[in-house]
Structure of Protein sspF:
Amino acid sequence: MGRRNRGLMSERLKYELAKDMGVLDIVQSEGWGSVPSRDCGNLVKLAIERAERSLQTDNRFQS
């Protein structure tokens, strides 16, 4: 299975981010397609920030 066929983020993470951004109600009632593009961009930005923090934490424990 190629990378294009599987999601980069788990469903759990997507819903957690949607809750943090305040768009979970839209996702649950209307689906991901109804989330405004600006909010989708902010969700991606938040996911990247979390991933970077996680990498920094992992690197501190490995040093």
User: Anything to note?
Assistant: The chain has a mean pLDDT of 86.
